[in-house]
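Researcher: Sequence recovery benchmark, item below. Answer with residues only.
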């Protein structure tokens, strides 16, 4: 498989992963969560948040394959996002999505329609995402009547989840991931409600 074929294959893989992430957040949005949402609604949202983060972890591996032409052997066949991220974090530079925002290009820029800049305020680090992923584990099992939870603790878990959902969506809404000079650019929801995922290499974009 030549570089062009690999780029196209991995682009399709990354696009599918991001479509699934978008679909999961749409399901969560339909739940209309609030500080009074019940357990069944919250565990449904946590399930989709957890799966979305797993999609991001797989996306990191796809980006590695695209840019570095290899994937860590011990990450292949791994489903646990925390374990995948632990492999990702050991690499320098870290191959991980970074939030971006669109701005008007500088006046001196020629033939530039979209000017992307890093969005530090919405960005999440590998460690932050790993913590969020671990928090979703709270909702994996049914409430155990022999291990009661206080109202205050339940309320805290609920508010943590509501914040985590917003944080992850804001982080992924507009993002890029870079590996070896190869980039995937993603807009999970455009102004028209579509999803855009493209690749770029040596400043040449591919739809």
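Model:
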């Amino acid at each position: 498989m030549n570089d062009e074929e690999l780029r196209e294959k991995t682009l399709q893989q990354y696009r599918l992963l991001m479509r699934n992430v978008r679909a999961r957040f749409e399901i969560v949005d339909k739940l209309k969560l609030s500080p009074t949402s019940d357990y069944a609604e919250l565990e449904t949202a946590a399930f989709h948040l957890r799966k979305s983060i797993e999609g991001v972890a797989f996306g990191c591996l796809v980006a590695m394959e695209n840019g570095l032409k290899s994937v860590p052997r011990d990450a292949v066949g791994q489903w646990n996002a925390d374990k995948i991220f632990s492999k990702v974090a050991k690499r320098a530079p870290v191959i991980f999505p970074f939030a971006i925002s669109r701005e008007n290009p500088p006046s001196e820029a020629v033939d530039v329609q979209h000017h992307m800049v890093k969005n530090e305020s919405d960005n999440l680090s590998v460690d932050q995402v790993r913590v969020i992923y671990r928090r979703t584990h709270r909702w994996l099992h049914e409430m155990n009547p022999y291990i009661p939870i206080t109202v205050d603790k339940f309320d805290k878990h609920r508010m943590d989840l509501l914040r985590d959902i917003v944080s992850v969506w804001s982080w992924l809404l507009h993002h890029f991931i870079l590996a070896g000079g190869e980039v995937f650019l993603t807009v999970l929801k455009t102004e028209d409600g579509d999803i855009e995922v493209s690749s770029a290499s040596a400043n040449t974009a591919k739809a």
